[in-house]
Amino acid sequence: MRLISRLLLLGICAGLSLPSIAQGQAYPHKPIRLIAPSSAGGPTDVITRILVPGWIEALGQQIVIDNRAGAAGMIGTEMVAKAAPDGYTLLMGFTGPLVIVPQLNDATPYDVLKDFAPVSLAASAPYVMLVHPGVPAKSVKEFVALAKSRPGKLNFASGGTGTGVHMAGELFNLAAGVRVVHVPYKGAGPGMTALIGSEVDMMFNGLSAALPHMKTERLRALAVAGDKRSPLVPELPTVSESGLQFNTSGWYAVLAPRGTPRPILAKLRATLVQAMKAPQTKGRMTEIAVEAVGSTPEELTRRLREETATWAKVIKAAGLKGK
What we know:
Helix content is 47%, strand content 19%. It is of the alpha/beta class. Strands 1, 2, 3, 4, 5, 6, 7, 8, 9 and 10 form a 10-stranded mixed beta sheet that branches.
């Protein structure tokens, strides 16, 4: 009887341990939900849909894109912060809900540095500084001189308060020591329409959205907002080449809920980087003026900390807190 009892006990213990072992070895053994906290067709959604096919191939498992727009990206971001840390719910995060909105809204229902486990940067999309052709400035220096001669008279459009392109405009004000007035629109598209129609004087926007209007000369590009020139418009200088301390761009990153096991995070990162290096992925990214980039989790954490500090200064200088 003792022998039988012992065998039964061993069998029960083995049975209890098998699922966890199998689950650890088989990850991912079911589809992964990748939440994009923006509407379908927007930049985050487009970039996500370019990356996912290669990532599916590298992982050997389906990845389902779940668009959860609303509250400036907070709704979808909060869903991932509160999801089970098992590797089956991930976030395609971006600048707004990760490093800007939490500083504008004290009621943000998550703490980016405490509630998430960084996986990797995924893509970078340069902003470009645009003016209406009627604005008498053909360089950043000329625009700064014009703004200083007309304090409070020039304005810039954005896709809404707290968006990346809004913050780019406020950072420009701070770096250049000028006061160009912010005019928010319900989306970057309407903002661009306003700029083309000469309702506003200037706007920072993604290069991919701006290129068609630059080619037809409906808009004049003065500079790229990132830290290097774009290979798509190599003749266009960066804002910093005009002597300003200025560097910003739109970026996208994959994060998981805090507590996700390290082996899972490592597998996600390795396969994501593999997908980003695929020629088809890189080619499609280039077509929309986006660069596929990878990073270590530590590098992504550093980016989150640095940009949080940068935007805190900009928000304070612009008097945006509590608006």
